[in-house]
Amino acid sequence: MLVLMASVGSTAGRVAARLLRAIGDRSGGPLMETMVALSVFVAVGTGVLVGVQTIQNSGNRIEGKAVAENLARNQMEHVFNVAYQNATSTYASIADVPCRRRLTLFPRPLVAGLAPSCLRP
User: CA 112 to CA 22: how far, in whole Å?
Assistant: First the structure.
């Protein structure tokens, strides 16, 4: 079909003749092979770098969690090793706390005698 169109001499024939010459011409082959190989290497290299970055981010996150856990363990150990000290003074009862508003949350106090005056019926 292309050979018939090339012999016609029209615009379509000239385009077909050019196409036939370009197909037969192998002068740009090594350049195309080089470009394809470079693009493959770039794609593989990008994938490797993304993988390395993901591993590094994961390692940093795990290291931060390990440091936080170690600090928490040390603080808990310190708290457990501190001797218990009794209070030197007495605390005011909750019944002595003045109320500014009258609350009616419960019909009667939860614990008799310990509720503030605003909760007493």
Answer: 103
